[in-house]
Amino acid sequence: MTSNKRIDPNQPKHWHECAEYFDNESDDQNDDVNNDSEDPEMLHIHQDSSDESEDPVMVEKDPGDESDASYVKSDSTSDEEPPRRRAKREQQLKQSEIKIFTARSGRQWTTEEPPKRKILQANILRQQNGIGRAATGVQTIREAFQLLMTQDMVILIVRETNRRAHFITEQWNNRNPGKENQWKETDSDEIWAFIGLLILAGVHRAKNETLDELWSMIDERPVFRATMAKNRFKILLRFCRFDNIATRDERLKQDKLAPVRDLWAMFLAQLRACYTPGGSLTVDEQLIPTRGRCNFRQYIPSKPGKYGLKIFWCCDSDTVYPLNGEVYLGRQSQAIGVGRNASPICNLVKRLVQPWINTGRTITTDNYFTSAELAEDLLGVQTSLVGTIRRNKKQIPQELQSDPYRPEQSSIFCFDRQITLVSYVPKKRHAVILLSTLHHDKAIDNEKKNKPEIILYYNETKGGVDRMDQMVQTYSCKRKTKRWPMTFFFNMIDVGAVAAFVVWTIKNPQWNERKHHRRRLFLLQLGSELIEAHVDRRQQQPQSMQRGVKLALQAIGQTTTLSRPPMASTIAVKRRCQLCSRERDRKVITHCARCNIPCCPDHHQVICTTCSDIFLK
Known about the structure:
37% of the residues lie in helices and 13% in strands. It has 617 residues and is of the alpha+beta class. Among the domains are: 141-247 and 483-551, no CATH class; 278-330 and 341-474, Alpha-Beta Complex (Transposase Inhibitor Protein From Tn5, Chain A, domain 1); 573-616, no CATH class. The strands form six sheets. Strands 7, 8, 9, 10, 11, 12, 13, 14 and 15 form a nine-stranded mixed β-sheet that branches. A hairpin with a 5-residue loop joins strand 3 (100-102) and strand 4 (108-110). The chain starts with 12 loop residues before the first helix and ends with a helix. Keywords: Membrane, Transmembrane, Transmembrane helix. Residues 143-500 form the PiggyBac transposable element-derived protein domain.
């Protein structure tokens, strides 16, 4: 390039050569440099600075982020970075790591933890757990059970059972003139004994045994024969009712649970009154196995019984005490409950926990109930929610789904105001997603397979209803029947026995505390106390007792009043020996001192009074 600069002829020749060289080099390397920089003095300054910039420098990487190589450490800088500059850089790196997840519903979740603040009102427990005021005066196991199965409920059963028995007996008498039957009315003592025998049968795990086996003396269970006749027990099973069958059809049009609605309502009221739960509640379902004809019977293949009646329960997570329940009746014509615009499952959970809202409790549910909508509704009434959630929910972002490239025991947290989601990988290609309004951080327990605190809390509180159902099935009093109201009644007895056991052990914590089979001992004593009044009344009529009944009473520790007839008397009436054949027709005046039957000398032996007292013990 030709220079437009004017050359001074007075300058030396070598100066002109150097000036021309510098002009050419500057034009080649910096085309965008202004013409003012072509001054000779500026050219020397520019050349000096270029030489200095070619000196080697040291580049130090930030140990917190290996990809950040923009920090250049020169000879003039110090070894330590200024604190203000480091804090600013760390904040920028942290902001760059925050991610935003968007779900299909349009809801946005962030991986940034919410700021620490005071404990939320929904997480502050305002009630102390323990037995209710009605249970403070309990002295015996029978009283604890009668808190749940009250005398009013038994009176209802007595009234409707007698009504049904009279109706059936009258129909029989009209169809069979000359063979009229008379119904002997039942009473509350007999119904209590009936319930006690059902409980004792459950303790012996004899729900699949026939009544002949239960009333047999061979199996060493004399309590059944000593309490009630087998035919009487069978006829009570047949005629047992809980409502007026004459008005049932009209009530069934509005309520599918009409045959047991009154009994069920009284039972739930007593459950809520006798116990105050702790801070954790569990909502889940129970299936009562039955194959009887019922228009709201459910099929759940994952349950052992598969077919049966489904009840949604709210239980205390710590003591498995049943607090509230609702029977699934299918689609009803009229919706019942709060928030009709919300989903039916949300309304169901809110109805179950309604008595304990605004008290700072936490509800644990499985993926059938959990949703973000339910969590927000419960937060509005100062109640927390923890539970697994289904992966196909619209509120779940795609980043939380299972991914074959995610390592095992890894977790992804995301937050939206007071709701926390966590996705945990217990094994390859599988992810468990949980929702919580109780936890608001990324706490992880490194000692337990790196599980988040949300999962540990869920595992600790999720089994309230399942454990109650397990206790019910262990010693169930259920008998084989095709009538679903009776199946429902048997389950009420079992659940009431579980609730009574919880109340009794809280009231008396030292009762058999070192024994592992405390509940079995509780049920044995409960059944014995329930039949006691009926056995005492039956014992007062020894003349009408059969020999087997007397032996059964003696086997359970009861003594019968036996009048020992004289061995010989001039005014005694002769009677035929019952141990001889009828052809002999041998009549004697001697009687057995134990069973009072007439017997001849060939069939009795003479013993002294001392030996007779030992023999009759």
